[in-house]
Each structure stands twice: as structure tokens, then as C-alpha cells.
Specification:
The protein has 3 helices and no strands. It is mostly helical.
């Protein structure tokens, strides 16, 4: 007979539920922001006003910020899993950690390219 352990299930379910919730909130906020920008765009077109070229570029999407956040989240998940489920499951935090490291690398590569373009 199977032994049902609600604490064991919640240990794995709660972090994933939080991640899904954070992604949903973030996507919803981005959608609302884009709707507001589209309304401004349409109103400007109706009134014959000049359009800003960077209206739809999002300056908040910085690979450095994303990289730092994901790296620290990965470390936090690893520490939490180490204490809650043991060292066997602590490697779960490596996924966001390594994605964060990738974003940091992207930031430094883009920064290097911009510096080279500015020099030339």
C-alpha cells in the first residue's frame, strides 16, 4: 500500500506553484504595459503627433538584472532544498543558477560589443 506524505508533496509542489505564479504575474504586467503603449500609439496617430522611435522598447529588460536575480534564486533554492529534502535534491537550484550565469555572460558579451562599436 502506498504511504501518502503531504509534507513531501508540498516540498516539491510549493516552489513550482510559486514559479508559475511569478511567471503569470510578470506576463500579465507586461501585457498591460504593452496595451497602454498601444493606446498611446493609436492616440498619437489619430492626432497626427510624431511617434517616439523607442516607444515599444523595454528598457527594464536588462540581462544583468535578470542574471543576478536568477543566480541568487538558484542559490536560495539549493540552500532550501538542502535543508528540507537533503543534499540529493539540492541540485534543483542549479537550473535557475546556470540560467542566471548565462544571462550574466550575455550582458558582458553585449557590453564588450558595444564598447568595440563605440571605439570604431
Amino acid at each position: 500500500m502506498l504511504n501518502f506524505n503531504p509534507i513531501g508533496i508540498s516540498t516539491f509542489a510549493v516552489p513550482f506553484i510559486f514559479v508559475v505564479l511569478i511567471i503569470w504575474i510578470s506576463a500579465n504586467e507586461k501585457h498591460k504595459r504593452n496595451q497602454l503603449k498601444a493606446e498611446v500609439y493609436l492616440k498619437a496617430l489619430e492626432k497626427g503627433q510624431p511617434l517616439l522611435p523607442d516607444l515599444f522598447t523595454d528598457k527594464n529588460e536588462n540581462p544583468l538584472n535578470t542574471g543576478i536575480i536568477l543566480t541568487l534564486v538558484g542559490i536560495g533554492i539549493s540552500i532550501m532544498m538542502w535543508f528540507v529534502a537533503g543534499e540529493k535534491f539540492a541540485t534543483v537550484g542549479l537550473i535557475p543558477f546556470l540560467i542566471g550565469i548565462a544571462f550574466l555572460l550575455i550582458h558582458y558579451i553585449e557590453k564588450k560589443k558595444k564598447n568595440q562599436q563605440n571605439v570604431q
